[in-house]
Amino acid sequence: MTNTLVVEKAKTSKIQDVDFDNLSFGSVYSDHMLVCDYRNGKWEAPKVVPYQPLSLDPSAKIFHYGQSIFEGMKAYKDEAGDAWLFRPLENFKRLNKSAKRLAIPELPEEYFMEGLTTLLQLDKDWIPQNPGSSLYIRPFMFASGTGFHASPADEYKFIICTAPSGAYFSGKVKVLIEENYSRAANGGVGYAKAGGNYAGQFYPTQLAIEKGYNQVIWTDDNSHEYIEEAGAMNVFVRINDTLITGPTSDRILDGITRKSILDIANEEGIATEVRKISVHEVVEAAKTGELKEMFGAGTAAVISPISAFGYKDTDYDLPELQNSYASLLKKRITDIQYNRVADTFGWRYKV
Amino acid sequence: MTNTLVVEKAKTSKIQDVDFDNLSFGSVYSDHMLVCDYRNGKWEAPKVVPYQPLSLDPSAKIFHYGQSIFEGMKAYKDEAGDAWLFRPLENFKRLNKSAKRLAIPELPEEYFMEGLTTLLQLDKDWIPQNPGSSLYIRPFMFASGTGFHASPADEYKFIICTAPSGAYFSGKVKVLIEENYSRAANGGVGYAKAGGNYAGQFYPTQLAIEKGYNQVIWTDDNSHEYIEEAGAMNVFVRINDTLITGPTSDRILDGITRKSILDIANEEGIATEVRKISVHEVVEAAKTGELKEMFGAGTAAVISPISAFGYKDTDYDLPELQNSYASLLKKRITDIQYNRVADTFGWRYKV
Ligand SMILES: Cc1ncc(COP(=O)(O)O)c(C=O)c1O
Ligand SMILES: Cc1ncc(COP(=O)(O)O)c(C=O)c1O
Which listed site, A310, B55, B207, B267, has its alpha carbon 20 to 30 Å from B201? Predict the structure, then answer.
């Protein structure tokens, strides 16, 4: 451990207030958080402190220019009570990739990894053991430096908070393939986990919810002919027995679940294709019955089967399958995450 | 005035610390600010309070999902010491247009207008009288409600801060016409003053600054063949004696300066065109000498003449003109703003 990491423990714990049998997603927070400040041109040593409000000047650039990025991870507890992370270095690398695009100074790896493990060790009791639950981990970075000039801030905060959480979606997901709005521009920030990418999705998603859908499937902003991804998930389509997902690009987040699913599918002998998926193709396959499954994949939502999609005022239902890829892949990935099977890929990381 | 607007005065003023002869842009803040909270489904009555830090939970959605919007206005002081706003209702309307796109609840007009005028009357001494200076006004709204679920917050804050300010750019501006990065997607949030639109520009702008430019001129994300706008300015091009600016769209901010300039130019008998401007056309006109002027137009930057533009590793200098449109239009608009001439358009608003 860096001998500079300071830990200030909470005087009392709030854990007895938490109903671990009825956890929603990301709405109660554990006793501690990690805080790291960027000042005078460098990241200062991280501190673990009691979870507490942040005090910021009203002119802090986070309020004005959306200079913020985040990550989403989970800690999983196995039957023996040991805690595990899933490919945490991938989240660290993506955080710095996002940082670069948003003109935020990159964070040293040891601040992230040691800060995270120290925090998790301290709040280990907050990692739920109930099936389907986990400790959602939210690392984020934002501009705390001040000024109304539209330019990068000179001060930043990196924080990790954690939240014992249940499922992101309750049940299967009905999606709307978007024809008007879009999530990301070519040459934009879509591939980064930038705060602004999410706020921009809220209004179109609300419109879809009003029409009876749970989620929007984004298409490219130019033609709306190609499927990109969902709110916080990459999208997979199974046509006959082939599992297809779109290629990542500067508009699409390079999801860790997505690439893990591709690896598992390959190992399982499932034919996979990474290529552009046209809306036309999906609609036609739905009509002929060749479209067997669609699902979203992401850390928060794990693997979320899609029950139906809407496109141009028509809904297309997906069949109920006995041997769905979604079920198989979800079982395989969660078995690895919760340390129920051997980890042949080397993805698990002991806290 | 709404009889609900509460004013809590600062005990001491910080005004004696301010060097009004050497004001930078937006980096010192006046004694008071307006704060308005959205809670339980409604905007509560605004309060004017001493300028002070904000306390927010680390899970407030502003830190995670970029759900924030802002406006930029100025208060101008005339020779008699009276204070003026320029088309403030336009800012109010645009704020609510942005709010809608970002799934933020719209604000009642009287909260904005009465809050603003009360604040300005109280901090009237902060409006500079020095030539070229003004009180920059920053209304902003952001998600203070909490949760890691990527969905709109249930609580928001609307705040107005003010900052006595000098020029946004020092001197003429050298711009780079962007070929790779972009600012906005079709169907995205480019037309809204959403925080995330600005953070996304920082990195490409830094790259341009490293190459010796001050600012990027954004092009469309699909072909990069058409000029859109600059960081916080709309762009005008003069070819021969015609003044041209691009049409607004869902990618481009509908600038108040831009439309005022069009009105003034029409009144001055200057031929104007609102149509797509191709990069090719601008480069060709620069080569033949038909490109007479380029300038940016926005509240912060007023009218900022462009001295040269770079495109595909070549720089194109713009001529020094005796009777430039930029100078004429800048004089006309600032004369109206500072109450130096009659306001035939009805744009001035007395504080
Ligand atoms: C836009 C977007 N796409 C995809 C994903 C899935 O990425 P990962 O599997 O790394 O969680 C996420 C969530 O993290 C996301 O925000
Ligand atoms: C992206 C963008 N374009 C143009 C403008 C100019 O708009 P206005 O003239 O209303 O200030 C601004 C600044 O306000 C802006 O942020």
Answer: B55
Put simply, the answer to whether B150 touches A103 (Cβ < 8 Å) is: no
Q: How far is B85 from chain A (nearest CA, A)?
A: 19
* DSSP helix/strand/coil, B197: helix
**Rounded to the nearest 10 degrees, what angle do helices A88-101 and A256-267 cross at?**
140
Protein residues with CB under 6 Å of any ligand 1 atom: A 72, 193, 229, 232-234, 253, 255-258, 298-299
Q: Where are the alpha helices (DSSP H) in chain B?
A: 62-65, 88-101, 109-122, 195-210, 256-267, 279-288, 325-337
Q: Do B182 and A161 touch (CB under 8 A)?
A: no
Any domain includes B33: yes
Answer yes or no: do A153 and A221 share one domain: no
Q: Which residues of B touch A165 (CB under 8 A)?
A: 148
Cα-flanking dihedrals φ and ψ of residue A101, to 5°? Answer: -65, -30
- Cα of B237 vs centre of ligand 2, distance in Å, is 17
- Asked whether residue B161 falls in the same domain as residue B286, the answer is no
Range of the domain at B242: 173-337
Q: Please write the tens of the pLDDT for every residue from B160-202.
A: 999 999 988 888 899 999 999 999 999 999 999 999 999 999 9
A211 and A86 housed in the same domain: no
**CA nearest neighbour of A206 among A219, A194, A215:** A215
Q: Separation of A252 CA from ligand 1 center, angstroms?
A: 9
What residue in B sits closest to A168 (Cα-Cα)? B149
Cα–Cα dist A146/A89, whole Å? 31
Q: Are B33 and B8 in contact (CB under 8 A)?
A: no
Range in A166-170, A280-284, B97-101, B210-214 the model is least confident about: A166-170
A44 close to A168: Cβ distance less than 8 angstroms: no
The domain that contains A125 carries what CATH number? 3.30.470.10
CB B284 within 8 A of CB B240: no
On whether ipTM exceeds 0.95, the answer is yes
Whether B72 lines ligand 2, by a CB cut-off of 6 Å, is: yes
Asked whether residue A351 is domain-assigned, the answer is no
- Contact across the interface for B182 and A188, Cβ inside 8 Å: yes
* Ligand 2 near B233 CB (within 6 A): yes
Q: What CATH number does the domain containing A249 carry?
A: 3.20.10.10
Q: Are residues B202 and B119 in the same domain?
A: no
Co-location of A248 and A136 in the same domain? no
Q: How many domains does chain A have?
A: 2
Task: Report the nearest-CA residue for atom 1 of ligand 2.
Answer: B232
On whether both B290 and B316 belong to a single domain, the answer is: yes
| pLDDT score of A101 more than 80 | yes
Residues of A in contact with B142 (CB under 8 A): 63
Nearest ligand (C-alpha, residue A168): 1
Q: Does the distance separating the beta carbons of A199 and B66 come in below 8 Å? A: yes
Instruction: For residue A348, tell me if it sits in a domain.
Output: no
